[in-house]
Amino acid sequence: MAVTDFFAGEIATELLKQLFSISAKAWKYKNIADRLIALIETIQPTIKEIQYSGVELPPHRQAQIGMLFSTLEKGHKLTERVLSSRRWNMYRQFTLAKKMEKLEKTISDFMKNQILTHILADVHQLRANADVRFDRVERSLTGLEEQLGSMKIGGGGMIRDAMKIAEATMEIETSSEDEKFGVGLEMGKRKVKKMMFNAEGGLFGISGMGGVGKTTLARDLERDNDVRCYFEKILFLTVSQSPLVEELRAHIWGFLTGCEGVDHVQDWNLQYNGGVKTKKLVILDDVWTRKALDSLTSNLPSCTILVVSRSKLADPNATYDVEVLREDEAISLFCLCAFGQKSLPPGFDKDLVKKVAGECKGLPLALKVTGASLKDRPEMYWQGALQRLSKGEPADETHETRLLHHMEASLADLDETARECFLDLGAFPEDRKIPVDILINMWIEVHDLDEAVAFATLVDLSHKNLLTLGKDPRLGSTYASYYDVFVTQHDVLRDLALHLSNKGKVNRRKRLLMPKREEELPKTWGKNCDEEYNAEIDHNVDRICVFVAGEMDDMDWSDFDMDFPKAEILILNFSSDKYVLPPFLSKMTRLKVLVIINNGMSPAILRDFSMFANLSKLRSLWLERVHVPELYNTTIPLKHLHKMSLILCKINNSFDQTGVDVSCIFPKLGDLTIDHCDDLVTLPSSICKMTSLNSLSITNCPRLGELPKNLSKLQALELLRLYACPELKALPDEICELPQLKYLDISQCVSLSCLPEDIGKLKTLEKIDMRECYIAGRVSSAVSLESLRHVICDEDVAFIWEEVERAVPGLKIEAAEKCFSLDWLDE
């Protein structure tokens, strides 16, 4: 059975759930959602029969199922957009409705051709003729290492380095040595083959985190009939972490020139007369660094090179990022390793198996190792393993050796700062998006990095597949903001960060982390209250992260009278409508970064906010989904606070109390972000007293209708973001009196109809973003914007900048095109 059979069945189920939600909640889409539900319910039984048939369909049938899967997947992504679209954005709702109609037509056309009926007929025929049998795994991973651990391979290095444990054993041996069961390979094979076959030579990549199945995919491509027909010769070399470069180069020389047996290549330049006319494929597996790749591929003649690496070494457009397995595939692989068959044996606890396999989050290596470690174990042992896994701990000693040590190899090439930044990711809850802004601020304050260096570190970790950086067109551009851009991390990588951070006595750790949400703090923390929670001697930092699922009151904190004299970061993550701040917060006199996030449904009321008076060194404050406390004249100033972010908060007129001078409370505040705060109707004029502000972001505030007239007092302001404020009808003329303003973002401010007449006074303005902002009138003074170099707007309003483009040298007018197809869903 092809991987797309699994995918089509699962995605159809998920799409139905989304359509039912749309039908119930989004009345504008109800009729078309109901029609789509009827269509998909008609084909779902056939898809499920194909999905669970257990037979391998011929390639042309797989391609047809793949077409259906692609359509359903795009539909699923489309429904997510529909459910998240804002009611006020009529243009977006119109385009989404058109896309829904196109999706209905595509599925309807597919049904008219009766393709599924023909496929089902093939399934019955294949099931009758085939006798597919899987034997138990013949060799354990440990046996493989013991037998082959000292063997050298052609490219140098050890088998254990080259095979990378489970990537080689993701294939389960069957009764025939030539017959292999590779889980989740078909989609990857199809995409890599398409990349290579559509180009005449070049460098291509297979990338992914450790243990995701890169080597397995590469080996399967080497054996694939289509690949063997397309390329006349194929060379597979394992490079490893410590490659013997000269030996590897000699192998490649001999392969490309036909001069086999050459021990040393004197002149590494294969641009000889006559060239290489045959199609040849060189697969370089387990490449760790760009330096190693360049030394092996420079000056090669025309050939195709496929590099397999944990890092993204090839061009992103020529790289296939290996994905984790879907749930059905993961269960199948897990059962093969735990029970010797790809389905659950009779009588075994199904929910327990699903929960244990679910802790692996679809990672083949984790599934393989965890399943093997639980083989022949009683259910009670499984229960204990599940509890350990849920806390980010190894299931047993072999699990730690085979999985976490294998994953730790991914950190080998990181410098000390990048490694510390990776370990910081363990401070965030599992299965949660992490705001990039929080990470950047942490790294700036604690690791003493510049913002550009912190961002570069984030990108490097992403390229090494140690985290996943969300796609956003603004990311990395000049004046970009990060508060609404997120990163995610696979749970196994988070477990690695927790495993490395939680070594040693709890009082002596650099990071004090809770692996999952609990109703109360770990009891071991309270038992060690008699001793200070200090960092190691050679470090100055003790990071703390507290995750609490319910309410915390004074009594709950009474058993945790802890001291953190060197703490610089505190992250409080809870789910409640009221929350008592921990008493030890008042003793954290060195605290630089405080993050308070409520994951509950409504904003929480914080108690004991007065203890902020002792946080004299606090530089960054992030409040999410809480009631912002009222400010009074007696409020102790936060003299060093530089950045404050209020996300999904209730502002409650906190900045506009009579007689309160906020500039005295926040004398050095340089960056203020207010995002998704639905009770903000008018921007308080008191904010304009904070003359130290360099960046002001008021975004996604649906009721904001007016800006203060004294905005010109912000003489140091360089960045002004007013993104997605649909009720904002005008920009005050005073905005033209900001002498330092460099960036203005008014995108998705759909009620704005014009720019200020004197906008030409902004001599320092460099960039304007006004996407989905329907300003139709030209502003004559705009030709005086001598520093302007980039304007982003919709295509139908780009004409208003024609005169400015002629008057200002080097100005780029970027027209954001409207998209009416579903192709953007693939991005």
Automatic annotation (TrEMBL):
UniProt keyword annotation of Coiled coil present: no
Pfam families in the record: LRR_Zer-1 (PF25013), NB-ARC (PF00931), RPW8 (PF05659)
GO biological process, alphabetically ordered: defense response
Top-level taxon of origin: Eukaryota
Keyword Membrane: no
Official protein name in the record: RPW8 domain-containing protein
Protein family membership: Belongs to the disease resistance NB-LRR family.
UniProt organism field: Brassica oleracea var. oleracea
